[in-house]
Write a structure and sequence with these properties.
The complex is a heterodimer of chains A (about 270) and B (about 250). Chain A is built from twelve helices and five strands. With about 270 residues, chain A is of the alpha/beta class. Chain B contains nine helices and two strands. In chain B, strands 1-2 form a two-stranded antiparallel ribbon. The chains are: A alpha/beta (about 270), B mainly alpha (about 250).
């Protein structure tokens, strides 16, 4: 039997990208507004980049959710690696052109010229670092022709500075970098998320010391924070079921936070 | 599904692993501290034994002088009279006047209100130390109490009568002068001058005492006489000062 007190907050932190779960934090909100403003500009490509877990995908989904009410927006959250498939899927989703045959770039541009949109359609590409150079080149040509506007997200990693790649450097675009959450931002994120779902009792348990530890363990990575909180509330749910006397309702148990970190791999033990 | 017991074991292992550097540091710190303390105490052990064997060569007697308004804040060191008494040196082995003069001149003066003095001179000749002359440190103030029972200028005076040591006479004269007993200072300076005519300070105390006793002219004459024999610069300076003051 599921326990009401900790099962609900646990489910809140399941790591799925849902625009409805978007938590407004000052810095992220600022990024989002600048992203929305950039989309309105006649830019061909907009780059959203940052380290993993900084909320790029969430922003992209949120943008899709908000923009799709007013204009044609297509989101590709799982990269389409095949070049022909990529153009075919775009043609189908944006121009409603269905074809089993492979689609050339020329044919695609003809289609876009044939269909007249008042506002240029926007294509949102998540995980763009997974696309091949050939596909990226086609994206560049399509955006140059102003057939479509692209918003892409990229991982910025220590090993590979993908932004430095030629096909990203030669285009005129706007780039927005997302940073990892600070202690304050993570605190707001966790508490807002709990309060948004009326988990007031649990929100009250989260104190500054807990947040400091969580920030230290996750290094401000939202995805890691979600995983950690999910594991933590799973632990709480277990203890509530088996050893309810062990639960202190005035603070989150540091030991259990560390146990959750061990479980999620944030601590090597 | 969470395996709680396994997680708890892993957590315990993690905590132990994490505590190891701290335990190591603390242990090292304790060992280091203990070693330092042991070495420190070891270095100080011989001094204690010296004290116990009463072989410290000189006794510096702390005295809170009467009428000293700075007695609470000021620490004055004064040679113990008991120490002086304990010196049973035959007249023939008394050091030369020059060396003894240096010794006395460098010893703390008893009654001059001066900034706190904490210098204890290293003695050259080992002289037995009596337990009663050990400084007593009391409370937070660094004041060393003098044992009044053992300090008596009269004892020194008696000893001076017996051994007629000019340096002891100079000491007594200086003591009286510093305590504003100018007639006594005059007497002892006179006796000292008779014993040793080359002690500048004794002549100066003699002349200064005369001035204090209102016999400035006699002081001048004495100084002139002394200057003619010794050509002492300090005597000349003092005479000039007296002349300037009288000419004003």
């Amino acid at each position: 039997m599921e326990h009401l007190l900790f099962s609900k907050p646990r489910d809140l932190f399941i790591d799925i990208v849902n625009p409805k779960d978007y938590v407004q934090i000052d810095s992220v909100s600022h990024m989002y507004q600048s992203l929305k403003t950039s989309v309105q500009k006649p830019l061909k490509m907009i780059l959203l980049y940052g380290r993993p877990g900084t909320g790029k995908s969430m922003l992209l989904h949120k943008l899709h959710h908000d923009l799709s009410k007013d204009q044609k927006v297509f989101m590709i959250d799982i990269p389409i690696i095949d070049e022909n498939d990529f153009l075919r899927v775009l043609a189908h989703k944006i121009y409603s052109y269905a074809s089993r045959e492979s689609l050339t770039l020329t044919r695609f541009l003809e289609l876009s010229a044939a269909v007249n949109f008042s506002i240029i359609p926007i294509v949102l590409l998540d995980e763009a670092q997974l696309y091949s150079a050939d596909v990226m080149e086609k994206i560049r040509l399509i955006s140059d022709a102003r057939a479509l506007k692209f918003v892409i997200t990229l991982h910025k990693t220590d090993n590979e500075d993908i932004i430095a790649k030629e096909h990203f450097q030669t285009r005129i675009w706007e780039s927005i970098e997302l940073q990892n959450a600070s202690y304050e931002e993570l605190k707001i994120y966790i508490q807002k998320k709990l309060l948004k779902s009326n988990c007031f009792d649990v929100a009250n348990m989260v104190n500054d010391k807990n947040i400091k530890l969580i920030t230290k363990l996750t290094k401000g990575n939202y995805r890691e924070a979600n995983k950690l909180m999910f594991a933590l509330f799973s632990l709480y749910a277990w203890y509530e079921e088996h050893h309810p006397s062990k639960i202190k309702y005035n603070t989150l148990n540091t030991k259990w936070i560390e146990m959750a970190a061990i479980h999620t791999g944030l601590i090597r033990a | 599904m969470l395996d709680i017991s396994k997680l708890e074991r892993r957590w315990l292992k993690y905590k132990i692993k994490r505590s190891v550097p701290y335990i190591f540091l603390i242990t090292t710190g304790i060992i280091f501290s203990v070693t330092i303390m042991w070495l420190y105490s070891d270095n100080h052990q011989p001094k204690k034994s010296v004290t116990a064997s009463k072989t410290l060569p000189i006794t510096i007697k702390a005295a809170v002088l009467p009428g000293d308004t700075h007695s609470e804040n000021t620490m004055l060191l004064e040679p113990s009279m008991q120490f002086m008494q304990s010196i049973e040196i035959p007249a023939e082995v008394i050091p030369s006047s020059t060396s003894l003069k240096k010794s006395i001149a460098t010893s703390p003066r008893p009654a001059v209100p001066s900034p706190p003095v904490s210098t204890v001179q290293t003695p050259k000749v080992p002289i037995p130390l009596s337990k009663s002359t050990q400084p007593i440190i009391k409370g937070k103030l660094t004041s060393i109490k003098r044992d009044d029972a053992t300090f008596d200028i009269h004892e020194l005076e008696e000893r001076f009568k017996n051994n007629s040591n000019p340096n002891l006479g100079l000491y007594i004269a200086r003591y009286h002068y510093d305590h504003a007993n100018y007639s006594e200072a005059y007497n002892y300076a006179l006796k000292t001058n008779a014993l040793n005519t080359t002690l500048d300070e004794s002549w100066l105390i003699f002349a200064k005492s005369l001035v204090k006793l209102g016999k400035t002219d006699q002081a001048k004459k004495t100084l002139q006489l002394y200057i003619s024999n010794s050509n002492s610069e300090s005597a000349k300076n003092f005479l000039d000062t007296l002349n300037k003051e009288s000419s004003k």
